[in-house]
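User: I'm writing a short report section on ligand binding and want a predicted complex to refer to. Could you take this sequence and phosphoric acid mono(formamide)ester and write out the structure as tokens? A short remark afterwards would be nice.
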Amino acid sequence: MRHVLDITDLSVNEIEELINVAQDIIANPDDYREVCKHKKLATLFFEPSTRTRLSFEAAMLDLGGNVLGFSSANSSSSAKGESVADTVQVVSYYADIIAMRHPKEGAPLAASYVSNAPIINAGDGGHCHPTQTLTDLLTIYREKGHLSNMTIGFCGDLKFGRTVHSLVSALSRYEGFKFVFISPSELMMPSYVKANVLDKNGLSYIETESLTDVMPELDILYMTRVQGERFFNEEDYIRLRDKYILSPDKLTNAKSDLAILHPLPRVNEIARSIDKDPRACYFKQVQNGKFIRMALIMKLLGLSK
Ligand code: CP
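Assistant: Sure. The structure tokens for the complex follow:
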């Protein structure tokens, strides 16, 4: 039994396999309609979600399986004081695979020790979000045709933004990526990511507060929301939340084939007027998320078409 708690739980070859399967699902959805017949996915979301939970559920339904679960801690017995470990052990008697989100870093790891079913980390606090990363990799691959030799700028809340931690970790294993981190000083990429992922692998990066200065260099711009729910201080959140707002004027010196990504939800950081720009890829990410999660569910259950 395998769990996916971190993107590095999957090798580069396995990610390539998942991307290939996802692309085949996109091209031939009918071939996959019964692959998970009689299988059940449980979605245990102790923290709010729209995309991740519903795309997991849509993925399992499109594979012919069934879904059960809860969308908030308050609607489960954790509201009565039940531990995460007990909750997960119980659900693993009912489901074949579990996708779990929790506000505490490491909760899915703790769950994996007691679960009788594969655990997929659907986001744990400010730590990581491996299936968003699979979504991002599929999107970059489909937009650019390859996963190598590009400059990617991460902009916004790089401290609490778990999707950026996972994506940097993933891209550090591919050839020739250059990393540009654009954030206010309070929300810089955590030093543990820089030390354990970038420095350890001899990968260089640039840190700056100015999106405008670096825009012409970027092949990919990964915008992020300032994660208000992880701030200790409302005043700091209000001061920082609108630091970067991507509007059409900010794109005047951008590459014509720039890919603009955002894991969503967005608040103010991308103006609605950008949505019609052919470089905006964030709603394509949403669509890709379901297909790559279908591929991952199949892989962890040992199923193929
Ligand atoms: N990208 C993402 O994790 O979105 P949700 O919080 O809506 O699941």
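A remark for your report: Strands lie at 40-45, 66-70, 97-102, 119-124, 151-155, 178-182, 205-208, 220-223, 259-261. The longest helix spans residues 282-301.
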